[in-house]
Write a structure and sequence with these properties.
The complex is a heterodimer of chains A (308) and B (440). Chain A is an alpha/beta fold and 308 residues long. The longest helix of chain A is centred in the C-terminal third of the chain and has 17 residues, at 291-307. In chain A, helix 2 (90-100) packs across helix 3 (105-118) and helix 2 (90-100) runs parallel beside helix 4 (134-146). Chain A has helices at 42-49, 90-100, 105-118, 134-146, 164-179, 191-197, 215-221, 268-276, 291-307, and strands spanning 2-12, 17-27, 31-35, 57-62, 65-66, 75-78, 152-156, 183-187, 200-205, 208-214, 226-232, 244-252, 255-262, 280-287. Chain A is built from 9 helices and 14 strands. Chain A is globular and about 75 Å long. In chain A, strand 1 (2-12) and strand 2 (17-27) form a beta hairpin. Chain A is 33% helix and 31% strand. Chain B has 2 domains: 3-41 and 172-437, no CATH class; 46-141, Periplasmic binding protein-like II (D-Maltodextrin-Binding Protein, domain 2, 3-Layer(aba) Sandwich), CATH 3.40.190.10. Chain B has a 4-stranded mixed β-sheet with strand order 2-1-3-4, with helices on one face. A two-stranded antiparallel sheet of chain B has the order 5-6. In chain B, strand 5 and strand 6 form a beta hairpin. The chains are: A alpha/beta (308), B alpha/beta (440). Chains A and B meet through helix 2 of A and helix 1 and helix 7 of B.
Chain lengths: 308, 440
């Protein structure tokens, strides 16, 4: 079941098109990566999901109904540019934001206490934001994003500016939100974290969707049929049938590392048989493209096609 | 609590709890009360009897100084250096020394304890008169009394009479109405700028620290805008009412402590009277508080409470109009220079009215005053300046209606601009650009 369905959404600003006929399906309970270069239209899409702006045409469905004002309380949003009132006490501020999301005063106190204790920041309640470091502010901001237990969580560059420990803490929290049944959208340029936590992704470029689907499937789809092989005790020159193209060859200690692409109708088994004759096969792995590669490749391909 | 309510209470509480708000709330009434009471106090201080010893080398001042209740003169001749020390140690408060001179009168006044404020000018004018008489007689052989009769007969005097709807004549205090009007005008000008300016800064702050994106993912931009404007309006009202209340309390306290200082039963009109009368007081030779106060309550064409109500109406609507426009501008501008450029066209009319406040006060029913009090941008200041002199009811109502209509228009305009502006970063916004946003 889809929690969010974006149907043919188009948004134009005076000089340019920010989103062009975008359709997306986000399944309930997954972590969804929203990827794309700067200026691709991600922020506009996020703002439409948040009902900060409205699309010029197209529809957004939420839980099987057209997105409406009431749904706002089921959405949590962590914007890319973090912001809190600098002169306001943290506790008061968190209370204010929690109540704006529809919690009653008592609920807000109770839930905020839980989160403040969980993050070990109870003692900050009466401090002002301007006294905190950037990382500390991020924690507070994250709490204000999730305190109303949103079904649908939108995180824009959640890991930027965090140290490795806090990054880990945040990743765990995201997984925990998922385990509780929330759906999480992450917009980020950090492809490593995408591979680590996203179930599905969508790649937007120049206002168009150019890729969408399950992360593992996408990686399969873009595999280049190449393998990395580690050969020990190989003294002979590498000589393979012409259907195998050697992309790379280098010596590491007493291992020979090979990168080979299979051409024509040959199979991995065929390749394995061929290399077995050359020495002792220590490792034989398929090389799957990294998200980083797919990103760069797809975006550049699209840009070239549309440049001509 | 509704979301707008939450926003209002945050805006209100964070501002009311600020130190600057608390200090201003107490300080301004103190300054106000001081401004009102000080002239009276100084006038009373002169009532202490001052004894002056006159040492005149010319010998025509002898026995010619006029005495009154708190000023007595004695005369002696001799060496000033010797006399002055003796006299000041003894029974005299001051020694006036007039050295021999026939062309220009120069005099010295010696004292140990500073004499009351009016003494010097009083002595100066007396010396002037005596010397003048002397010159008339000595040089032109004209009798001083004859001269004064001619002078008095040729002096013109105008009494202003206002005729009200029933055709009754009222002796109006045009001068006083003028100054009351101007003070009201200035006051509303500062109030509008002060609080609408805070809206501008508030919007700007939220935009710049980016919290606005979190906020409008929870509430509609219009709710945020209205919450902010209403919250600050309440801050303004609180401040104003506290000022009125504290000034009142302080004045009552002073009256209780020194009953003679402000003796009149009608305290409210007394306050205004006090406020406006300072300038006149100084000019008044004999100051009698009670007669002046009762005079005012008779001649003032609009009652004090009506004035306060009109003030509140024009402050609120004027504030709302400017606050909405400032909010729009604050949302559109990325930095202070930009916002200054954008606010200038908005503030020009208001500043213009302040520049024109003298002509308005001088001719409160003239063309200029009429039109400025009809244009919503300028009418808060212009109308308040005119009000104490009396304004036809239809003009007042028309002006109020126009304010309300214009208020609705500005809020509509501001909401449109604000919605787009708060999410616009890194772009220099012009009025032309803002015009386009209206169509989004």
């Amino acid at each position: 079941m889809n929690i969010v369905e974006v149907k043919n959404v188009t948004k134009r600003y005076s000089q340019h098109e920010a989103l062009s006929d975008i359709s997306l399906n986000i399944k309930k309970g997954i972590i969804y990566g929203l990827l794309g270069p700067n200026g691709a239209g991600k922020t506009t899409l996020i703002r439409i999901l948040n009902q900060i702006t409205a699309p010029d045409s197209g529809e957004v469905w939420f839980n099987g109904k057209i997105l409406n004002r009431k749904d706002i309380e089921k959405v949590g949003y962590l914007p890319e540019e973090r912001g809190l009132y600098k002169k306001m006490k943290i506790g008061e501020q968190a209370m204010y934001l929690a109540q704006l999301k529809g919690l009653t005063k008592n609920e807000a106190v109770e839930k905020l206490k839980y989160w403040f204790i969980k993050f070990g920041i109870e003692s900050w309640w009466d401090r002002k934001v301007e006294e905190l470091s950037k990382g500390m502010q991020q924690k507070v901001q994250f709490i204000t994003t999730v305190v109303h237990e949103p079904e649908f969580l939108i995180l824009d560059e959640p890991f930027s500016g965090l140290d490795p420990i806090n990054t880990n803490l945040l990743k765990n929290e995201i997984h925990e939100m998922k385990a509780k049944g929330s759906t999480v959208i992450i917009s980020t340029h950090n492809m490593n974290s995408v591979e680590e936590i996203c179930d599905e992704i969508c790649l937007i470029n120049q206002a168009h969707k150019i890729l969408e689907g399950n992360l593992a499937e996408i990686k399969q789809q873009f595999r280049e049929n190449s393998y990395s092989i580690c050969l020990a005790n190989s003294s002979t020159a590498i000589d393979l049938p012409s259907s195998f193209q050697v992309l790379e060859e280098n010596q590491q200690d007493n291992c020979k590392m090979l990168k080979v692409r299979i051409l024509d109708d040959e199979t991995a088994n065929g390749l394995l048989q061929s290399v077995m004759r050359l020495g002792e096969v220590k490792a034989f792995n398929e090389i799957l493209p990294s998200m980083n590669q797919i990103f760069i490749q797809q975006v550049e391909k699209y840009n070239q096609q549309h440049h001509e | 609590m509704s979301k707008v309510g939450l926003i209002i209470s945050r805006e209100y509480l964070t501002r009311v709890k600020k130190k600057s708000f608390i200090i201003l709330t107490f300080l301004v009434p103190l300054i106000f009360a001081a401004l009102m009471v000080l002239p009276v106090y100084l006038a009373i201080k002169t009532e202490k009897n001052t004894r002056v010893l006159v040492v005149d080398d010319n010998e025509y001042f002898i026995n010619r100084f006029k005495e009154n209740d708190h000023l007595t003169f004695s005369y002696r001749s001799g060496d000033i250096a010797q006399i002055k020390n003796e006299a000041l140690d003894g029974e005299f408060d001051a020694v006036l020394y007039l050295p021999k001179n026939s062309q220009k009168m120069v005099a010295n006044l010696y004292y140990k304890e500073e004499p009351s404020m009016g003494l010097c000018s009083d002595l100066e004018s007396q010396i002037d008169n005596i010397f003048f008489d002397q010159m008339l007689r000595d040089s032109f052989n004209i009798d001083a009394e004859k001269f004064n009769t001619i002078k008095n007969a040729s002096r013109a005097e105008i009494t202003t009479l206002q005729i009200d709807d029933q055709g009754d004549e009222k002796e109006s205090l045009a001068e006083m109405n003028k100054s009351i009007g101007m003070i009201c005008g200035f006051f509303i000008y500062f109030f509008i700028f002060m609080f609408a300016g805070q809206v501008l800064r508030g919007v700007w702050e939220e935009k710049n620290n980016r919290i606005v994106e979190v906020l409008i993912s929870s509430v509609k931009p219009i709710e945020l805008l209205m919450g902010k404007i209403i919250g600050l309006a309440l801050v303004g009202l609180t401040q104003f009412l506290m000022w009125v209340a504290f000034t009142f309390i302080i004045l009552c306290g002073i009256q209780m402590a020194v009953p003679n200082l402000l003796n009149d039963s009608d305290t409210s009109s007394q306050m205004v009277a006090e406020m406006m009368n300072e300038s006149q007081m100084a000019a008044e030779d004999t100051f009698d508080a009670s007669t002046i106060f009762s005079d005012i309550s008779n001649y003032f064409p609009i009652s004090f409470s009506q004035l306060i109500l009109c003030f509140l109406f024009f402050f609120l609507t004027g504030y709302l109009i400017y606050a909405a426009l400032f909010a729009a501008v604050g949302s559109a501008a990325d930095n202070e220079t930009d916002s200054n450029q954008l606010t200038l066209p908005i503030t020009m009319p208001l500043i213009l009215t302040i520049v024109l406040i003298m002509p308005i006060a001088n001719n409160p029913n003239g063309q200029l005053a009429f039109w400025l009090s009809m244009i919503p941008f300028t009418s808060p200041v212009a109308m308040l300046t005119r009000l104490p002199s009396g304004v036809p009811l239809w003009e007042l109502l028309l002006s109020m209606t126009l304010m309300l209509v214009f208020f609705v228009l500005t809020v509509w305009f501001a909401a449109k601009v604000y919605r787009t502006g708060i999410l616009m970063y890194g772009k220099k916004v012009t009025w032309k650009e803002i015009w386009k946003w209206l169509k989004y």
